[in-house]
Amino acid sequence: MNYCSQCGAKVALKVPAGDNLPRFVCDTCLVIHYQNPRIVAGCIPEWEDRILLCRRAIEPQYGLWTLPAGFMENGETIEQAALRETREEAEADVELTSLYTVFSIPHISQVYLIFRGSLRSADFKAGHESLEVQLFRPDEIPWETLAFRVISATLQHYVEDRQNDGFRLHTGLILPTPC
Amino acid sequence: MNYCSQCGAKVALKVPAGDNLPRFVCDTCLVIHYQNPRIVAGCIPEWEDRILLCRRAIEPQYGLWTLPAGFMENGETIEQAALRETREEAEADVELTSLYTVFSIPHISQVYLIFRGSLRSADFKAGHESLEVQLFRPDEIPWETLAFRVISATLQHYVEDRQNDGFRLHTGLILPTPC
After folding, report:
1. A163 at the B interface (CB within 8 A)?
2. Nearest alpha carbon to residue B109 among B58, B71, B66, B152
3. What's the CA angle centered on A48, arms A42 and A50, to 5 degrees?
4. What is the radius of gyration, based on Cα positions, of chain A?
5. Which of B19, B89, B171, B173 to mutate to test the interface with A (most CBs of A within 10 A)?
6. What are the sequence ranges of the domains in chain A?
7. What's the rounded mean pLDDT across residues B108-124?
8. Which whole number is the average pLDDT over B138-161?
9. Which residues of B110-140 are buried (b: 16+ CB within 10 A; e: fewer)?
10. Measured between CB atoms, does A125 come within 8 Å of chain B?
11. Do A1-35 and A38-173 come out as alike in CATH topology?
12. Can you list the positions of beta strands (E) in chain B?
């Protein structure tokens, strides 16, 4: 951030009075520009004994498999965001059943909120951000070509919970990849 | 938003190519400025049969009671944010036990993530954003002077679950107050 989005003056990085973290501050119009983590909302769409994954048609991780998920928009609930992303990426209609995983990814300031959801029909197809969408049994999940570690971690919990016949909420943390 | 925070040029509100929502776009440096919901993280600090509330020393809702909670910062996990807010507002040290409520407040683009937490000691006092902090039994909760409806909704679940001796995750929605 270089300029104040309110008045166009140059901003400075400084700790405002009463605060303890540096913020971008405008000395002209006095606005403090806070920057906060973003929420990624999505779901695990279930159909009988299989789940739906999408192969990404966009960067990053073009060509790799993921769950339908994306940035929550202003004015939405987390459930609306998860349903919208599932429609956009897989043209699929699900009924959300429960919040399933909450992962913090502090090094990129993101929080993933992933629901379980029941597909209302097997009528789905690749949306414009997907190359293809496909149902996988747990033993068919393409672990080597998943797009993101948060997706692998979510699916690992899912496979284990399904084996144990006991789904529960999981919270967790994704750390940076070692260099 | 009036000016591009990257280059200082005027921004325009328009739907970018491949998108379906209006965004603030800079036609000079081509940056798209996305705006997304913010996370408020906090906890219900428990001590024996009581919970800790804070009376706000800041606006909005100066003088009213709330749970320790505040905006999650970049670079944090949700757990770190909840612990930090509890330290800042109540100078209290808790051990988080489980994520308890997840409330969307779409009209102000916020998502509240509130944990249950066990106070490690009864050594707490008002932080600089609190007028006072106090332990309340469920039947002492000051319902009429709570600061926010999301806090009332969270505490209603808490009181009910404790009566039923069965705590579970709750997800919910706070709508605008009728005019």
Report:
1. no
2. B71
3. 55
4. 19
5. B171
6. 1-35, 38-173
7. 97
8. 98
9. bbbbbbbbebeeeebebbebbeebbbeeeee
10. no
11. no
12. 11-14, 23-26, 32-33, 38-47, 50-56, 65-66, 69-71, 94-105, 110-119, 130-136, 170-173
Residue B78 contacts A where some CB pair is shorter than 8 Å = yes
- pLDDT of amino acid B137: 98
CA of A47: how far to CAs of A14, A92, A117, in Å?
A: 52, 11, 9
pLDDT at res. A177: 87
CATH of A1-35, one of 1.20.120.1200, 2.20.70.10, 3.20.20.80, 3.40.50.300: 2.20.70.10
How far is A63 from B111, CA to CA, in rounded Å? 32
Tens-place pLDDT, residues A111-152: 999 999 999 999 999 999 999 999 999 999 999 999 999 999
CATH topology of domain A38-173: Nucleoside Triphosphate Pyrophosphohydrolase (3.90.79)
Rounded CA-CA distance A133/A126 in Å is 5
Token pair of B30 as six digits = 């081509």
Nearest CA in chain A to B39: A37
Q: Do B36 and A38 touch (CB under 8 A)?
A: yes
Q: How confident is the model at residue A18 (pLDDT cuts 50, 70, 90)?
A: confident
DSSP H stretches of helix in A27-148: 78-90
Smallest CA-to-CA distance from B99 within B112, B90, B88 is with B112
Residue A50 phi, psi (nearest 5): -125, 160
